[in-house]
Each structure stands twice: as structure tokens, then as C-alpha cells.
Amino acid sequence: MDAHLLNTIANFIWGIADDCLRDVYVRGKYRDVILPMTVIRRLDAVLEDTKQQVLDMKKVLDGAGITNQWGALCNAAGQAFCNASPFCLRDLTGRSAGQKLKTDFEAYLDGFSPNVQEILEKFKFRNQIATMVEADILGAVIQKFVSRDINLSPRPCGGLPGLDNHAMGTLFEELVRRFNEANNEEAGEHWTPRDVVELMADLVFAPIADRIKDATYSCYDGACGTGGMLTVAQDRLNSIAAQSGKKVSIHLFGQEINPETYAIAKADMMLKGDGEEAPHIAFGSTLSSDQHATRTFDFMLANPPYGKSWKTDADKMAMGKKKEILDTRFNAVTQEGEPLPMIPRSSDGQLLFLLNNISKMKQDTPLGSRIVEVHNGSSLFTGDAGSGESNARRYMIENDLVEAIIALPEKMFYNTGIGTYIWVLSNRKEARRQGKIQLIDATGIKTPLRKNMGEKNCELSPEQRREIVRIFMDFEESEVSRIFLNSEFGYWKVSVQQPLLDAQGNPVLDKKGRVQPDKEKSDTEIIPFGYEGGIEGFMENEVRPYAPGAYIDPKATKIGYELSFTKYFYKPVQLRSIEEIVADLRALEQETDGMLAEILGGIQG
């Protein structure tokens, strides 16, 4: 559909809020009415042509005493949803205002099939009816949505073209985007900026674009919010396939814990097609109640919550007397066969979403799986050796899953100005990437916004997104691209001991003849994997020249992994010379009528 016409429809619906809701709702609550009403009107328009068939079928089923009717009624409607009430939405415009309209409207809503009821429940839309009736605006809102000035039907009507499923999905996403931007103090929690999503989709598909075949693919987001990341991924794959003459289909899967954003995501899936994808969007916590536990996926994208406590989930997942979390997604085994628990601190669960995705990677397909997630800096370095966070990084790196990590510009998101990083993972690395990780510093690649949106003050233009993807695809060393062996990021944390000496300077032994350590001289050293000679080489070169009897307690040695962009992309700031400073002081001297003469004389002397 023509973009101008879509924008016209979006403007009309956006204007309903100002026309009908302005004095009843605060601006931040307009969405509580407009979004569910948009869904209701679209479903209503889709069902209009088969309304009589549904009512006829219901009469037959009622006469036969059949209570489980929804399957047959949806078949009669020719959709994955239906409405068995005697009303269409347009019928209600002829009702008088007040309680009669309220009663009929509620009966109309009650007529929807259970899958639509769930969406309305999560929107909490019925809570708005009393408010609208009390303010006498319910009739006006309904009248606006069935206006002949717009057509939300898939069929042409009143001289206006029909709105196909894709166009309707695009329209709904545009409304969601507008509400998110208007409410930008909340947007960052549920909504990833479109430019970041576009870049993530590029990074998922660009490396394997020439390997896409005529096939069915799956895409998953375990923190799907309103579902925007999934739909962008779907559009991107379809575009790539079309360019190469391939016929593909992509099934979308997601899970969301916030009721309203879950409702938006599920409604979006229902509006875009025949409703088959809608059941793939699950409600609840991905961490403690994974609704896609038995599935694997081709492509996975996510923007999990940063710095958000997952203690409630942890309490639900804890098992046994020791209250341990034994979920296999978050517990692994090292290559040496040792247990590797990857449970992070309860104050930040973002790494768990990445581990959840890794657990859903396909192992038996040529493409395997690709994962792209955006995190804050905590996932790179938080956690000491042996901690859950460090163990998670160890698992990913030692299993050679990390292709690249890309540092984005600061202030890219709506509710945080901190730095963010895109992780790119694959279990089918191309040969040149095997055993290596690429770090890309894209912090300087950005376009300033003319007006800030919350914390967001910059964006990535299409050209800048292509530049970042080019740097990734080139896989070459440059000022903004560094390539390292996986081992570069690993280290040993060792406990260095010195023997306890008696008055004669001899080591003190315990009953078994073992040297006793001097606890006051105990120390800890961090030894990079790349240190020549390893732990022993470090001890000989760095420790024993100053503590000849020093030794390592092997039982206390731990392995850690961390990634530091500052270490590899640090750009020192040139300090000002004394001459420049004195020149500035002399300029100030002239402005202050000689008051600094004595100070300057002392500096020059």
C-alpha cells in the first residue's frame, strides 16, 4: 500500500485521541483505548463478510447442544478468530448512549473467540469502558473507528482501497511507535529503536544471505516486547530471498512478561495474517517459565532488560534443600568435564537471555543458528573469575560461539545513556572466524537527532548501518576493528602463597609434612592466558624474584573471561602544554586588571 495512504490512516487514528479522549485521559493513557480499539475494529472488519455464516453455525450448534463451539465457529468465519455476538461494531453506532450502549458493547466483546479475549484481557481494555461511559465518549470513539473516512477492512470500501495483512501490521506498528516515542520515558523498557533493530537484522542475515534456500525458517525473541524485532527480521529475510529469487517462509516465536506489550505483540501477529503465528507469542517469564523449551530456531534476536533483578525468577527456579538452580540452560560442563554453573547475581539477568538463546541453537542444519543480542557493558566484564557471569563468557568463548561484539554510540536508547553492545553469535562460524573474536568500535558512527527522544540523541542512518555491516563482513584489522584469538580474553586467577617461617627462617610444616602458608603474605595474581610460559612462567618472572619461596595453591586457581573495549580502543587525550595554560592565564590577567600578576610571576620564575 502507498505509504502516504498508510500515514493518512495513522494520522486519523492518532487524531481520535485528541478528538475524543483529551479531557478524559492524560496523554500517556491514550494508548489504553486507541491500540485495543484499532485491533477490535480490524478484526471486526475482517469478520463482516462471514458474520451471518457464523451466526447460522452458532444456531445449529446451540440446537444440537454442542458447547465446544469455537473451532466450528472460526471455520465458519474462515479465520483463526471469530465473533459470535449478534453485533458488528457498526451496529452499535445506532444505540443510545449510556448503559444500553455499555451493555451491548460488552456483549459484543464477549462474543470474541478465546484468543482475542486473551488480548483484550492483557490490554485491560474492559477497565476503560466504565470511564468512557461515564464521560459519554464511548459512542464517539466507536463512531470514529467505523468512520467512512478510513478503511481498516482488507476489502475496498467507499472508494478507499483495502488494507492487506502486511499493510495493517505496518499501520499498527506505526501507531505503537508513535505512542512509544510520545511516552519516551517508558519506551526503552519495551521498545528497541528502529535503527538498532535494523542493524541487528542486518547482522543476523547478511553473513548467510547467499546461503538462503527455498525453505521454511524460524525466528525467536525471548524478550519480544511488542514484537517489532521479529517483524523486522521477517521483512529482512523476505527481502533477501526475493532478491535472489528464493521462496521462503518464516515462522515467528516470542515470549513477553509485560501484559500490555504481550497483547500488542500478539495482536500484531493476528492482524498481519490469518492468525496462525499469534499462538507462537507466549506470555510469561522466559527465565522461570520458558514456553518454547522444546524448540530450536534458525535465527534469534533480543534486547533483554539491563540491570533488572531476576530474584523473583530465581526463587521460582530454586530446587532442593540447597535451593540450587539446576536448569540446564544455565548450567554447562567444561571441556574437561567439570561442572560450569553460569548463574549470575540476582541483580542482573541479561546474560541468562543469551544463554537461553544458545540452548535453542540448531545443531543438525548446515546454517546452524545465528544470535544477535544487544546488552550493556555489564555482560562484557562483570563478575570475578569463577562467577556465573564469567563462566557464561567462558562457555561461549571456549565453545567458539562469539563472532563479534560491536560497541554502539552512547545515548542510542530512550531510557539510558550508557554504552550498549551488540553480541553476534553463531555455531557455524566460517573458517576465517574460527577461534577468533572481532571487536568493532562503532561508537563514532552516528547521526545527531535534531530533537532528543528521552535519552536518545543520535541514530544510525541506513548508510551508517551499511558501514558497520561492511566492517563486520570485511573481518579486517583497522582503527575500529580488532581481531583476537579467543584465548586473548581468558585469564587465571591464582592464589600466591609464601611459606610460614619459624624463628630460624625454616618453613613450618603441618603434621603431614606440608609447608604451612603465611596467611599475612597471601596474595592474588591475574595471569593472562597469553603470558609466555603460563602460570609457572609468570611466577618465575614476576613473583619469585621478589618472593623466592612463593608457590601456587592449585586448588584455589580459577579461570575467568572478560572483554574490555577500553583496553583495545583507548584513545589517550593529549594534555595541554604549560605554555597554553600560561597563555590562558595571561588572557585572564588582562580581564581581571592585574590580579594574577603575582601568581604568574611565581610560575614563570
UniProtKB/TrEMBL annotation:
E.C. designation(s): 2.1.1.72
Coiled coil: none
Gene Ontology molecular function, alphabetical: DNA binding; N-methyltransferase activity; site-specific DNA-methyltransferase (adenine-specific) activity
Alphabetized InterPro entries for the sequence: D12N6_MeTrfase_N, DNA_Adenine_Mtase, DNA_methylase_A-5, DNA_methylase_N6_adenine_CS, SAM-dependent_MTases_sf
PROSITE patterns associated with the record: N6_MTASE
GO biological process, any: methylation
Span of domain N6 adenine-specific DNA methyltransferase N-terminal: 9-145
Domain DNA methylase adenine-specific: 165-478
Catalyzed reactions: a 2'-deoxyadenosine in DNA + S-adenosyl-L-methionine = an N(6)-methyl-2'-deoxyadenosine in DNA + S-adenosyl-L-homocysteine + H(+)
Pfam families: HsdM_N (PF12161), N6_Mtase (PF02384)
Gene3D superfamilies: Vaccinia Virus protein VP39
Keywords: Methyltransferase, Restriction system, S-adenosyl-L-methionine, Transferase
Name under which the protein is recorded: site-specific DNA-methyltransferase (adenine-specific)
